[in-house]
Amino acid sequence: MTVEVATNELEDIITKAVQKAIQAAHHEFIDSGWLSLKEGAKYAGVSYNTLMKYRTLGLQVCEIDGVKRISRKEIDRFFQEHSF
């Protein structure tokens, strides 16, 4: 086995391990139910600006040290409350 082949195999192993770790972290965060406002808008099927309008209508957003997050449960609650 040449050094070049060994290096390529090692790079492949490292790349796959990093991709797997990133996917696991992403799924853990998404599965927690907390989304960024952009992700929340996508989840709700509306634009970011519409989501901001919903905030004025009572949609609750969590903000800690300037970081804003919204829960899927809150989006679902808001839509259920405003359904007719």
TrEMBL record:
InterPro entries for the chain: DNA-bd_dom_put_sf (IPR009061)
Protein name: Helix-turn-helix domain-containing protein
Protein source organism: Caryophanon tenue
